[in-house]
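Collaborator request, handled under Task 6.
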Amino acid sequence: MTVFSEDRGCLPGWAGMAREFRCQSLERFRRERMKKFLVLSFSVIFLLGICGLGLAGSGAQSDKDVVLGCCWMAPVGDMGWTYAHDQARAKLVKKYPFVTSVVRESVSVPDMNTVASMMIDRKGANIIIMNGAQFTDVAQEVAKEYPDVMVAYTEGFTHKYPNVAYYFGAIYQPTYLTGLMAGALTKTNKIGFVAAMPLPQVNMRINAMAIGAREVNPDAEIIVKWTNSWFDPPTEGEVTSSLIAEGCDVIAQHQDSPTAVTTAASKKLWCFGYDADMSK
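Structure tokens returned to the collaborator:
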């Protein structure tokens, strides 16, 4: 059993669409430093935020210690999206003596405002990180209430206040590459995709995988099933099993746990991990 894990794309923004890669060669992707990990992306993001504290006129000094308030949507130990975020946090804290952090795992949308406010009021957090698109509205609320605090959230488009930022990587790029591999590997021409929610950041990966797969195997199809949750291991396992029962012999996923990988591994099928090295 071999598991492929995608590295997060490090190019800025969302603007590109997966179809732009139909006319680009595999060699170009190799030249584009696809080996960069999500850790590097977040290091840049956080450090830009740190610099912003001293330059944005918020009253904070450039030599002020930085306290990261990390509000994670799922458990850190899930070996996925949240795990990658926390690895970046740990590297920053280790490397820079002026950076400390406060972490809360498995924060729900209703609880996010309270958790973020507690980090700011009680722990002195001056940068709040929310690692989910579901926190778009609450990020604006917290930013409005605390104009001297920088608030960053994932996978969004909205920043109503100058102290709000959203971030995301060009994740369709490595997914296109995994699509090439999936199309070459499948013997049934059925590639199963365990998808969280029908949102742009998920759809772009599904489309990129389909484009890649069909370039090497025109008969390949991507069969998508939704869990309607970012982190729900039992449901992820059930959906993966259902895809396998329908004849999918290669599995991909956009989830915050390795359950799809372990389920596919138990059937000795090829599977692509996501956000972290799930081959371990």
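The cover message to the collaborator said: "The domain at 38-167 is CATH 3.40.50.2300 (Rossmann fold). DSSP finds nine helices and ten strands in the chain. Please let us know whether this matches your experimental observations."
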